[in-house]
Amino acid sequence: MAFAVSGCSTVRFYGQAIAGQAEILNKARPIQTVVEDGGVPARVKKELALVQEARRYAADHLELPAQHEYYRYTDLKRRYVSWVLFAAPEFSVKGKTWWYPLLGNLEYRGYFSEKAAKDEATRLRAQGFEVYVGGVEAYSTLGFFHDPVLNTFFRRSDAELAELIFHELTHVKLFLPGDIDFNEAFATANAEAAVRRWLTSKSNYAELAKYENGLTKDREVVRLLLATREKLKRLYARKDLSPERMRREKTAIMNRMHGDYVQIRQRWNGDSLYDRAFKKPWNNARLNTVSTYYDLLPGFERLMQREHGDLHAFYAAVAKMRHLSKQERRALLTK
User: Fold this and answer.
1) Under a CB-based contact definition with an 8 Å cutoff, are residues 88 and 285 in contact?
2) Pick from 199, 201, 135, 213: nearest CA to 161
3) Which of 31, 62, 269, 323 lies at 20 to 30 Å from 216 by C-alpha?
4) What is the rounded distance in angstroms from the CA atom of residue 103 to the CA atom of residue 91?
5) How far apart are the C-alpha atoms of 290 and 185, rounded to whole Å?
6) What is the pLDDT of residue 2?
7) Residue 33 predicted with pLDDT over 50
8) What is the pLDDT of residues 107-121, one digit of tens each?
9) Are 310 and 190 in contact (CB under 8 A)?
10) Residue 71 has pLDDT above 60, yes or no
11) 240: exposed, middle or buried (Cβ count in 10 Å: 0-12, 13-18, 19+)
């Protein structure tokens, strides 16, 4: 149906999506076969063992649908599995949306080719949009296929790898079409709480302390980015400014954001992953990638606390929200 009603560019998009997903599935091998393969590096086998441990914990203790996920392995021999494109007008933080069958309207476009993503970004930039293209290490097919473990999962700590598995399995458990902010914040809140449970069950308190320290730093930077986005939102709502004045005010807000980050960074010891992030330009589209995951996160964390960590009650409360409108869900979570 999508092919039948689409123009050439949309047909090309779905064509590359089908081909990219087919590559992932066709190259997948059972993990047991990979483990027995003498040509596979020991570090890969170690990572696969950790994924299996996290997958079993998710099924046994987190009520997550892990039985049919991550029992095969695909080596794509590249850094990212795909690349996502975000776009937004110059004077708006409301992102451009694309419609997908079964998924509804989402504020991003995914490509299995970096060149294809950048080509589309160039086209949108010519139309006046601000754009951001970023590499993706993992995604979920929401149970439509049995997702394999990918080599792109592995550039992270043990706790971060487990968090990724818990995050993607949360999407399989519940995904609401057309509400990316809800879906990503729910998965983020659930995955972070799951990592805490998992590390505590292993009495790995040193790794837990390291993980919590990383989250504390993350939140400090996220608060700065969300506050900057809110300042821009208020700026764009003004009707008394010319485009030239609007641009100057926008630049000043972005410069203050960078200055505030420098002050935050001075309080930290050691290197920060965010140093590289702040060397690249920020715009409306890139700020939206942060709000997608974190804007509603406090609401889900409060809900988890309200249920005293009872996952069954937490999931039931979240599932009830599927019957609300997108606006009603946001109002409930930000109340």
Assistant:
1) yes
2) 199
3) 62
4) 27
5) 10
6) 45
7) yes
8) 999 999 999 999 999
9) no
10) yes
11) exposed
Are 101 and 144 in contact by the 8 Å Cβ rule? The answer is no
Phi, psi torsion values for 136, nearest 5 degrees: -115, 130
pLDDT in tens, 139-173: 999 999 999 999 999 999 999 999 999 999 999 99
Give me the amino acid identity at 242.
S
Q: Among 330, 310, 290, which Cα is nearest to 62's?
A: 310
Give the whole-angstrom CA distance, residue 259 versus residue 229: 15
Indicate if the alpha-carbon torsion angle 171, 182, 306, 220 is positive or negative. positive
Nearest to 168 by CA among 65, 80, 75: 65
- Scored b (16 or more CB within 10 A) or e, 276-286 reads eeeeeebbbbb
Does the pTM of the predicted model rise above 0.85?
Answer: yes
**Which are the contacts of 335, defined by CB distance < 8 A and separation ≥ 6?**
299
Asked if 149 and 48 count as a contact pair (C-beta separation under 8 A), the reply is: yes
- Cβ pair 324, 177 in contact under 8 A: no
Contacts 24+ apart (CB under 8 A), 102-110: 102/177, 103/177, 103/178, 104/177, 104/178, 104/179, 105/178, 106/178, 106/180, 107/180, 107/288, 107/292, 108/84, 108/180, 109/13, 109/84, 109/85, 110/17, 110/82, 110/83, 110/84, 110/85, 110/136, 110/139
Residues in contact with 181: Cβ distance below 8 Å, sequence separation at least 6, in sequence order:
291, 292, 295, 296, 330
Q: What is the DSSP letter of 322?
A: G
Alpha carbon distance 192, 185 (integer Å): 11
Contact 138, 168 (CB under 8 A): yes
Q: Cα–Cα distance between 100 and 109 in angstroms, integer?
A: 10
* Cα–Cα distances in angstroms (integers) from residue 48 to residues 51, 145, 212, in the given order: 5, 19, 24
Percentage of residues of the chain with pLDDT beyond 90: 90
Give the E-state strand segments of the chain in sequence order.
29-30, 72-74, 82-89, 98-100, 104-106, 109-111, 129-136, 149-150
